[in-house]
Amino acid sequence: MTDDGRTLIRIAEEADAAVIARIHMTSRSATMPYLPPQKRSHEEVTGWVQDVVLRRCRTWVAVRDAEIIGYAALDGDMLEDLYLRPDVRRQGVGTLLLDEVRRHSPDGVSLHVFQQNTDARAFYESHGFTVLDTSDGDRNMENLPDMTLRWTPDSSR
């Protein structure tokens, strides 16, 4: 567990699924207005978190004042998700989660990010991620241009 005095990082539990789903949904709608409207209900997204994310990925949550405020999901060396409650952005929570992911990824971490998501791109680039490739959107369900970013321990030196 990691603790910055206010925010604790811990492994996610199945009981966290509904809160993780809410964070996933609210963060995407608040920070990526270019995405198509959400078609799945909170219950459906909670099911996806329980059945896919928590089973396939190593998942951590950021907790402040007994409330989950963000999460990160790592599948092998691929960061599948890193989402925060919109009201806690730019407070270091994303960095705490990313640091935890990197601690568990000694050979490096890759991720996909929408090309339009300039805030996320700037965040990852400020943490030493570099662009590996770009895509026209044929590899994501939103069909939006994206890019693969990669961090390796050597790239931060």
TrEMBL record:
Positions of the N-acetyltransferase domain: 7-150
EC number assigned by the record: 2.3.1.-
One matching Pfam family is: Acetyltransf_7
Transmembrane feature ranges:
none
Q: Which residues form a coiled coil?
A: none
What keywords would UniProt list here?
Answer: Acyltransferase, Transferase
User: Which top-level group of life is the source organism from?
Assistant: Bacteria
Q: Would the keyword Transferase be found if you checked this record's keyword annotation?
A: yes
Under Gene Ontology molecular function, one entry of this record is: acyltransferase activity
CDD domains the record matches: NAT_SF
Q: Which PANTHER family match?
A: ACETYLTRANSFERASE (PTHR43877:SF1), AMINOALKYLPHOSPHONATE N-ACETYLTRANSFERASE-RELATED-RELATED (PTHR43877)
Q: What is this protein called?
A: GNAT family N-acetyltransferase
Print the organism lineage: Bacteria, Bacillati, Actinomycetota, Actinomycetes, Streptosporangiales
